[in-house]
Amino acid sequence: MKRNIYILSVFAAFLLLSFSGCKPKNSGDAISGDAASRIYVAPGKYDELYNFVSGGFSGQVSVYGIPSGRLLRVIPVFSVDPEKGWGYSEETKPMLNTSHGEVPWDDQHHLDLSQTNGETDGRWLFANANNTPRIARIDLKTFRTAEIIEIPNSAGNHSSPFITENSEYVVAGTRFSVPMDDENGDVPIDTYKKNFKGTISFVSIAPTNGEMKIAFQLLLPGMNFDLSHSGKGPSSGWFFFSTYNSEQAHTLLEVNASKRDKDYILAVNWKKAEEYVKQGKGKKQKVKYAHNVFNESTHTATSNFLTEVTVIDVKDFPDIVYMIPCPKSPHGVDIDPSGEYIVGSGKLAALIPVFSFTKIKKAIAEKNYDGKYGGIPVLKYEAALYGEVKKPGLGPLHTEFDEKGNAYTTFFISSEIVKWNVKDLKILDRHPTYYSPGHLSIPGGDTRKPYGKYMIAYNKITKDRYLPTGPELSQSAQLFDISGDKIKLLLDYPSIGEPHYAQAIPAEKLVKNSVKIFKIEENKHPHVTLGEKNSKVVREGNKVHVYMTAMRSHFSPDNIEGVRLGDEVYFHVTNLEQDWDVPHGFAVKGAINAELLIMPGETSTLKWIPKKVGIYPIYCTDFCSALHQEMQGYVRVSPKGSSVPITFSLGKNTDVPDSLLNR
Amino acid sequence: MDPKNLSSKLSIPTRVIAFCCGLLLIVVLFVPLWRIELDAPQYPEGLLLKMYPHKIAGNVDIINGLNHYIGMKTLHTEDFVEFTILPYIIVFFALMSLLVAFVLYKTKKWLNILLISFILFGIIAMADFWRWEYNYGHNLDPNAAIIVPGMAYQPPLIGYKQLLNFGAFSIPDIGGWIFIGVGLMLVIAQIVEFKKNKYEKIQ
User: Nearest to residue A569, comparing CAs of A553, A588, A555?
Assistant: First the structure.
């Protein structure tokens, strides 16, 4: 009997073990032994690459060093940044101007570096604003935002600012279709199909100074334009846009825009469109949009409103755009370095279609169409298709390329990156990411010349990767080594805001051009103070202009009297330093905006309207020297109508009797 | 003693077992019977669905939220008539065990009835569980965002199964193990009785 019981209990124990045994262990995140040395950049040494990372809802762009993952700088672009006075100083306020007024925030999704012959050239970085449609140009000599242009006839500037291979254009495709700006927008939402339109803007870039101009807009059927990439090599002159919501839903898109088996990739022959515009074709449309430019020599931005765009209705020009069917709400549309293969990533598709540019051209030539969509010819899927990557993973989003003919695709739902060969479409490797990657970045991975040593995944979910910081966590980036056959995880690092797309460039392309100071003799600011002897305070009605200089370790002047309630005080502070890394800060008590952070040779202006009578301290906020704490002064504010005259001084101290001090 | 008399009565060890079974079944009322553990890359901490005799518990809301992508019906305790009946059935088996231990021990008949009905109940319960899993896994909203052709999301009855990005691991929880234990104990009790009879016959 005992034996039977024994057998039974062994059986029960076996049952228990076998259940827990059939649950697979976590795949684990073991990193290879040499990961630490691969990412180690010794103190004082430079990283190999700059990585420019979009800030998402932070509105800014962050700059990281790769492979160390060190944060080098956060460049203010679309959001105010009190730390740097961005959007607070009088000089930078116009940069955030739009047709809706000053917009202090935006959602910055994608970045693209300027290119020459399909290679990154390190001149400019372009950034989109998704919410209030804009494109910014960042000058990579100064790592500052140099220009912002608003996009009219657009809402949700998502498929932007992707660039052509000689930086002829950056594009801006509207995510939300909306009524055009010159139409009455006061229409019922359920008239979407009738009244809502999509546009794609081609914004030209001046080859010399990078200045942006809306060259023309294509008018398209109402749907959502998602992402884009320029053709290159053989497909140069073409641009590809992914679209979703070809169902034209205006509510519950998660269901109503997921119904059709296929949406479209839009192929745009922009060379052709450019020709038409040169011939004077297209309609001039009345719009209003802001164009803000930061002048390097005056250190001042100006904001102009433009009132016209050229719109080409693609229905009237049938040889500009074609639709390529692409399964299940495609997100990324990515072109391989050869320019021949176009990869569409259907968010909900169980395969990745790869289209061939040669076949697309052939299908167009042979009019191998499968009907029309909104007046646009739809190519037959098979006629454009090179092949499909079968069962790659779940939720494909974005693809980048290495120089060896491999593609790397992120999968949001199955939380992994899959490496596959572009030619034979075979899956070569897969690696989990932590967790759920959105975009990925391989240096030059969207150009003709990838630098396939590193790959960075920008994950959307962080959870347990770092020490917990309450409900709100940093987003997590992950660096991988892709130099070998197998993808190897090297590093996790937290990122700023919510990174979407990113760009990376070998450091040597930028380092040599990086500006160290602004030359004071080239400072053409209207309120510059060239030398302490020129510092002064001038009253113009109720405006008081303080022409102030900053030098280690004092402001000139640092004692100011004669300011009265009701005055607007402008502190025009010129940093006279001509030495690298000696910025000065400036702050005044009670100012309702922010500080100034003034680089050597630069002039910045803080507007201050004192609200109470009294003595107001001013001081330098950037630890500039051993006597930084001495860099301070006072402003006296007198009542309205006071007879205290404007006076200002530096160094004229009152003699203090020892008897008073020693009391 | 009269051997005939002896064999018809349950032995003390058997009655102790029946008593223990009764107590354990009362415990079952308060602990989860079954659990489905869900693992996904995005859920390193895992998600858990617990089935008590009277309710579903665990990360029900999160699981319902996720399941809407594939068009699975949301889970609600009220939708299962089983949760109103199950506690009574368990009480019934608990009382029955205690009765066998204290009142109905004069003949083996009641022990036999208890064991057979208990096993029958186990089989029916599992079949019912499978039926629910099948319905939830197959009756999907045709308007769901994610439709993978040919894909059903029926969780395993017992053991592990990969469903898209989720691994589902279905196993008994404390209550389920107690149930299995009670079943085994009743079998053991039968063996005890059988051996005793054989021994007495030889005598």
Answer: A588
Q: Which SS3 state, helix, strand or coil, does residue A498 take?
A: coil
Q: Determine which of B146, B179, B195 to mutate to test the interface with A (most A C-beta atoms within 10 Å).
A: B146
**What count of CB pairs under 8 Å joins A to B?**
70
The 10 Å Cβ neighbour count of residue A11 is 11
Using alpha carbons, select from A535, A618, A561, A559 the residue that is nearest to residue A584.
A618
Distance CA A283, CA A290 (A): 20
Contacts of A379 (CB under 8 A, 6+ apart): A322, A323, A324, A325, A360, A363, A364, A368, A369, A370
Looking at residue B2, its pLDDT comes to: 46
Say if CB A581 and CB A598 are below 8 A apart. no
At B4, the pLDDT band (50, 70, 90 cuts) reads: very low
**B96 CA: distance to closest CA in chain A (Å):** 23
In 3D space, the residue among A216, A214, A314 whose CA is nearest the CA of residue A266 turns out to be A314
Least Cα separation, residue A69 to chain B (angstroms): 23
* Predicted structure pTM score: 0.91
pLDDT at residue B1 in the model: 41
Residue A237 φ then ψ, to 5°: 95, -5
Q: What is the pLDDT of residue B5?
A: 47
pLDDT at B200: 79
Bridge partner list, A241: A228, A266
How far apart are the C-alpha atoms of A376 and A382, rounded to whole Å?
A: 18
For the stretch A4-20, pLDDT in tens is 555 555 555 555 555 55
For chain A, list residues with pLDDT below 50: 1, 21, 27-28
- How far apart CA B109 and CA B99 sit, in angstroms, is 12
Instruction: Evaluate whether ipTM surpasses 0.85.
Output: no
User: Which of B149, B177, B191 shows the shortest C-beta gap to A4?
Assistant: B191
SS3 assignment, position A647? strand
